[in-house]
Amino acid sequence: MAISGDTVQKILSLLRPHMMFEKERLAYLIRALGIDAAVLYRLEWNTPVNVFIPNMVKELVTCGEIAFGKSALCALLEVIREDVGKEQQLIIDELIKKVTEELEKKKLIKNSLSNSKLGSFDIYSIKFLNIAFQAAKAVVYLKVWASTTDTATGFMIAPNLLMTCNYVIGSSEQAEQTEYIFNYQEDINGNNCPINTVQALPEGAFYTNSKLDYTIVTLKEVSDIGKPLILKNSQMKVDDRLTIIHHPGGGYKQISMRNIYVAYADTNILQYTKSTLPGSGGSPVFNDEFAVVAIHQSSGNLLEPNAGKPHMRSQGTSMIAVLKDLQANAPEIYARLYG
To answer: What is the fold of 126-339?
Structure first.
């Protein structure tokens, strides 16, 4: 790590009382970095505090500066400083000074070793962004009133059929107590877009599978969302790139694009190199053609099937398994799928 072990221990002692629980951790980091900061997706939120804080510090150091001359780690310390007394503020001031000095030393060493190297870059057609924008219209924010989660994500797979996770909505009763909010996002000027909130259709088709962790709900009075998403019945390969459109942390619609790679794939599950936040469950996982290849479930220290070794990854149910299950057990829904 770029900062000393002694500095990490001081940060641990300082932050421990403020980051005992997941909601506190998330709230402080969003205040410091914003809701769309990439580092939020790389953290394992449900670890013990003495494990979480050193890992968080490492990720914040990797994140670098969020503004000229201000590191992500120092931004967090400044936010904590707002909530403590004068004695603690003096300690934080010294810590910020120490962290800044150590990170600056690291930057000088790095520049001296690699100032002649050029970084790699990717080039994509503007068409890719246009397709992503169209696909995003079918992604829906869920406010769940009768579940273990408060917010989640879902996506339209037919003009009035929505898919999300079973752990989000596990019964038709829960479906009817959930709000389905379309267009919960910002416009190009950073203003709130007009939203449309709908409910489940009580007599509509409903299907859930707890083993595969997905649910399909019929909605009523759905606004124009363009085209529902296509579910792709194809095997992904290790190192294939993925994209996720979701509502992390219960916030505005976000896109995690092209920086996610398949780590493991079979006909039942997909594991990929991306950590997500609460609220992302039920999101569509796309291939490069923006067809849905999996429904996102969770992230953390996950076991790879057959290998038995845990990895920091995310995981979703493959659409291969979902489509096979629908064809066998809910043919009336299968017949209505788009594409």
So the answer is: Thrombin, subunit H (2.40.10)
